[in-house]
Write a sequence for this structure.
DNA sequence: ACAGGTCCCTACC
DNA sequence: GGTAGGGACCTGT
């Protein structure tokens, strides 16, 4: 049993899926240039409560009060995968790390390709801020779309100045 | 076996 | 000195 909703916060929209205990299971991003921030879809009445909680957490991140979207969620994966994703939360706003740095931190200095693979299937972008991981020579990829990664990073760097 | 959001060295220009 | 190509390196399925 799972529930869905879509929120729009210029210039992005957020697709949410959560379970009956109110744990966010999946988050997807897309562009949405509607200027009005709003909940544009939800599939039952109880969703309002969840959306409110998510909205507040999102707002905290959006204003850089928290370095990631801090909502109740459930993360599946192996211990090592979780360790990698949890490590992302230590990266401060306006900072980045390389795939290689993360690999070294979890003790597999040459497993940087595998790090990319984990981030690629991160079900909760921004909850685990994988957009702050870049390649040694370029920005690297982003499962939610390369331009969205660029936008998120640009926005975070902008606030530092 | 194989894939994957990489890295780095090499060989060219 | 910039860049295109290829081999090596890890874990989870």
């Amino acid at each position: 049993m799972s529930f869905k909703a879509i929120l729009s916060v210029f210039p992005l929209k957020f697709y949410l899926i959560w379970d009956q205990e109110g744990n966010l299971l999946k988050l997807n991003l897309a562009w949405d240039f509607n200027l009005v921030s709003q909940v544009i879809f939800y599939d039952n009445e109880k969703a309002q409560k969840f959306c409110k909680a998510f909205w507040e957490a999102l707002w905290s991140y959006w204003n850089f009060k928290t370095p990631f979207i801090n909502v109740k969620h459930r993360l599946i994966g192996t211990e090592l995968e979780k360790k990698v994703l949890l490590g992302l939360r230590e990266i401060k706003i306006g900072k980045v790390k390389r795939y290689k740095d993360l690999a070294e931190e979890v003790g597999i200095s040459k497993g940087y390709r595998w790090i990319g693979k984990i981030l690629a299937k991160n079900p909760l972008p921004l909850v685990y801020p994988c957009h702050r991981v870049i390649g040694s020579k370029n920005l690297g990829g982003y499962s939610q779309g390369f331009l969205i990664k660029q936008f998120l990073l640009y926005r975070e760097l902008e606030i530092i100045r």
